[in-house]
Structure formats: structure tokens, C-alpha cells
């Protein structure tokens, strides 16, 4: 064995010097201290993790409590708002009762002979136009009938299979069927004229949350699609705003997310938005030339308002003693009184006629059933569709139901007037079986 190897042989403890033993003990203590430090660090880290877990648990609990408090507060605020609305309506009626009576028209004598000889008494069933129309309850804008710029009388409607049909009523001819126009049920199909391009446009909305605009002369594909127009739900009654005051067209849409949104004609959502606090059932726009003002007509699940398009402020509120969902609204120029009137149908069986600008109630007509749709006939009569499957004609002066057209087997959803060369003035109606009927003189 070499000398070096001999030196590497470890001495037994008893042969180690005192200094060597002390050095080893120091080294062992240093290692123990290091291990203790590491243990303390692990313990501290675990404590921090426990503290973090506890903190997040406490935060989650606090957030949950805050959410519950928020929900409770929101419920209370909603109730307070409803109470305030009721109080405001009661105050309004108490304050304006005499003024309303002064403005309300007295019922004219019921002239039975005049009614008997009226054209509307001659209306009768002519034929079924189509049998594959939409059949969804609660939507009154599911088909359009109109005379196009090209002179055709067009019926535009969606089918249960989500196709969009363009039908020539004069020639009884299906011009076009656009398959899969939307990916889900179509709830609205409305006609508007684009005065900028002098074209007939259709706007459709669907349960798939999209809005689409179609040119009826070139309708294979939409000229504009807005996906997810509303965050919650779909639009029952979107409309197109096109008039000489504006340099561009707009789309106005409302849904059960309790808002009305305005888009440009490229589909961009603008900053203009109206929070209405209720489901939006019906929307339309009205341009009053004399004032140069544009108004948004808004019928919700619990009220009726008109907004100023420019700043989205409330222009007028039409107070009802018992708020109800509004199914359909039309504007009517009463030439004899030289005033604009608003006629609305609600889902409690009432038709009300208001002074558009003063919001004074002029007349109330109690129907026998829930009313879904209305249309004017010669500014004297009102045709109504409703829950009892009949089409009724009401004399606006006497408030009497003067004719009842039976033939639909299920609830009638919508009714519209059109003139056909073969039949003269006609009514077109849709029921919950998806059948569209024609009634003529």
C-alpha cells in the first residue's frame, strides 16, 4: 500500500483529534441548520398556500354574499320601479282625467244601415294561398304583403323549414324559395323600401339571434347579415330606417335583453342604445316631415313609448291603468282631426287609439279575445287577428265589431290588407297551422 493510500484510510473516531471531531460536529450542525431552514421554508410555503386557499374561500364567500345581496337589491329596485310606474300612471290619470275626457271622442251613433251596405260586410273567404307558413305563437310580423317598386304584388314569408319564400300574388306563382335562410326558426319578415337605392328590401330575424337583409330582386343571398345582434334572445320586430333626412340607412332592433340597438347598414353596432327594462315586442320608425324629426315606436311587454331617434330620449309615454304586452302598433293620420294617431293592440284584448304627440287616450275598444295583429281598412275600419281564430272587422267610430270572418282552425297571428287586380281590396291572414288565407270582396 502506498503512502498516499495509507493517508486516505479513515482514522477511527478514537484516533481522531479533538479539533477534527469539533469540525465534524460543526459541519453536522450546519447541515442540520440548513435542513431546518428548508423545513421552515416548506412549512412557511404551506402556510402561505393555506392562507391563500383560505383567502380565496373567504373571497368566494363574500362574492357569493354580494351576489345574493345584489340580487335582493335588484329585486327590490325592480319592485320599486314597478310601484313608481304604477304611481306615476295613477297620478297621470288623476291629473289628466278631465283633459282626457275633453279630448276623447264621443261615440257616434251606430248606423246599422250604413254598416250593412259597407264593403267590409261583403268580405268572404277566397282561397288558401300557402300551407307551409310559419306557425310560431307570439310573433305578428312573420309575413309581408306589398306592391313592389316593379309593380308586382309580393307575399314574402318564412316556412317551418326555415326557407324564405317570395310569392307573386297576382300570378299565383312562387318566384323564389331560399333554402336555409336562417339556421333556426324565423320569427320576422318585414318589407321596407330603401329610398337611397330605390329597392324593395326584406329584413328577417331568427331564433339564431341573427338579422338579415335581402334584396327581393336578387335574393339568393342576404346583402347584410348581423350575427348575435342581441346578447340574450332574438328580435321579434326589427325595422329598417330609410328616409330623406338621413344620409344613410339604419337598422333598429329590440329583443328580450331589454334593449333597443341601432346598427348602420354595414352591420356595425353604433353607440346608440336604449335600455327599456322590458322585453321589446314591437318596433317601428316614423319620420315626421313637418317637424323634421324621427321617432322610434317601442311596444314592450309592459308599456308603450316613443323615443327621439337623435338622442334616444323618451319623447312620449302612453300610460295604461293596467300595463300589458303590446303585440302590434300602427300610425294613422286622422285627416278630419288633422292629427297623427297611434293605434295599438295589446295581449289582454284591448285596442287603444292615442293622440301620438300628446299621448292622450282617445278611444278604447274591448275585444272578445287577445289581439295579435291589426290593419286599417280605408281609415274607417280595423281588421284584427286573435286568439279565437277569427278575423274581425271593427268600426272605429262606433267601436262595434261589424264582421267576423271564420275559416282558420287555429289562432290567427297576423292580418294585412292588399289590393289585387283580380279581387280588388283583400285581406291576407296567417294562423298557427302555418296557413295563409286570402279574403276578398
List keywords for this structure.
alpha+beta, 4-stranded antiparallel sheet, 441 residues
The major β-sheet equals: 4 strands, antiparallel
Overall mean pLDDT: 85
Q: What's the helical proportion of residues?
A: 10-25%
User: What is the multimeric organization of the chains shown?
Assistant: single chain
Specify the number of helices: 3
Global outline: elongated
N-C termini distance = 133 Å
Can you describe this structure in just a few lines?
The protein has 441 residues and is α+β, with helices and mostly antiparallel strands. It is built from 3 helices and 28 strands.
Description:
With 441 residues, the chain is α+β, with helices and mostly antiparallel strands. The chain has three helices and 28 strands. It has helices spanning 3-8, 18-103, 112-116; strands at 124-130, 144-147, 153-158, 164-168, 173-178, 186-194, 199-206, 211-215, 224-226, 239-241, 250-254, 259-264, 269-275, 280-288, 293-300, 304-308, 314-317, 326-334, 339-346, 350-355, 361-366, 371-377, 381-386, 391-395, 400-405, 412-420, 424-431, 436-440. A four-stranded antiparallel beta sheet has the order 1-28-27-26, with no helix packed on it. A four-stranded antiparallel beta sheet has the order 2-3-4-5, with no helix packed on it. The chain has a four-stranded antiparallel beta sheet with strand order 6-7-8-9, with no helix packed on it. The N and C termini lie far apart (133 Å). Residues 5-9 have low confidence and may be disordered.
Amino acid at each position: 500500500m502506498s503512502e498516499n493510500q495509507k493517508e486516505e484510510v479513515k482514522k477511527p473516531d478514537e484516533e481522531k483529534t479533538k479539533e477534527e471531531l469539533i469540525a465534524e460536529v460543526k459541519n453536522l450542525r450546519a447541515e442540520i441548520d440548513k435542513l431546518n431552514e428548508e423545513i421552515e421554508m416548506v412549512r412557511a410555503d404551506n402556510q402561505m398556500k393555506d392562507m391563500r386557499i383560505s383567502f380565496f374561500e373567504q373571497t368566494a364567500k363574500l362574492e357569493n354574499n354580494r351576489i345574493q345581496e345584489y340580487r335582493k337589491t335588484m329585486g327590490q329596485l325592480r319592485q320599486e320601479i314597478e310601484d313608481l310606474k304604477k304611481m306615476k300612471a295613477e297620478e297621470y290619470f288623476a291629473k289628466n282625467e278631465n283633459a282626457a275626457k275633453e279630448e276623447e271622442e264621443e261615440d257616434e251613433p251606430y248606423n246599422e244601415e250604413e254598416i250593412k251596405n259597407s264593403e267590409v260586410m261583403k268580405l268572404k273567404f277566397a282561397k288558401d294561398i300557402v300551407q307551409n307558413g310559419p306557425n310560431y305563437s307570439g310573433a305578428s310580423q312573420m309575413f309581408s304583403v306589398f306592391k313592389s317598386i316593379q309593380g308586382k304584388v309580393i307575399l314574402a314569408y318564412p316556412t317551418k323549414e326555415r326557407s324564405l319564400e317570395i310569392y307573386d300574388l297576382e300570378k299565383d306563382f312562387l318566384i323564389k324559395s331560399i333554402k336555409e335562410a336562417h339556421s333556426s326558426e324565423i320569427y320576422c319578415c318585414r318589407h321596407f323600401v330603401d329610398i337611397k337605392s330605390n329597392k324593395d328590401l326584406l329584413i328577417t330575424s331568427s331564433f339564431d339571434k341573427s338579422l338579415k337583409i335581402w334584396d327581393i330582386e336578387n335574393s339568393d343571398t342576404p346583402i347584410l347579415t348581423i350575427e348575435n345582434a342581441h346578447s340574450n334572445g332574438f328580435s321579434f320586430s326589427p325595422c329598417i330606417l330609410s328616409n330623406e333626412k338621413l344620409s344613410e340607412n339604419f337598422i333598429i332592433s329590440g329583443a328580450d335583453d331589454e334593449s333597443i340597438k341601432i346598427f348602420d347598414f354595414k352591420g356595425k353596432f353604433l353607440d346608440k342604445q336604449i335600455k327599456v327594462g322590458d322585453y321589446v315586442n314591437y318596433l317601428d320608425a316614423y319620420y315626421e316631415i313637418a317637424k323634421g324629426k324621427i321617432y322610434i315606436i317601442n311596444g314592450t311587454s309592459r308599456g308603450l313609448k316613443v323615443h327621439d331617434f337623435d338622442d334616444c330620449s323618451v319623447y312620449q309615454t302612453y300610460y295604461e291603468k293596467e300595463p300589458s304586452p303590446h303585440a302590434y302598433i300602427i300610425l294613422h293620420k286622422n285627416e278630419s282631426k288633422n292629427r297623427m294617431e297611434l293605434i295599438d293592440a295589446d295581449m289582454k284584448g284591448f285596442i287603444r287609439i292615442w293622440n301620438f304627440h300628446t299621448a292622450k287616450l282617445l278611444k278604447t275598444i274591448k275585444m272578445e279575445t287577445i289581439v295579435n295583429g291589426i290593419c286599417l281598412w280605408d281609415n274607417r275600419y280595423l281588421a284584427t287577428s286573435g286568439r279565437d281564430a277569427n278575423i274581425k272587422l271593427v268600426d272605429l267610430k262606433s267601436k262595434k265589431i261589424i264582421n267576423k270572418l271564420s275559416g282558420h282552425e287555429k289562432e290567427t297571428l297576423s292580418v294585412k290588407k292588399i289590393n289585387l287586380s283580380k279581387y280588388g281590396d283583400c285581406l291576407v291572414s296567417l294562423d298557427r297551422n302555418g296557413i295563409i288565407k286570402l279574403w276578398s270582396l
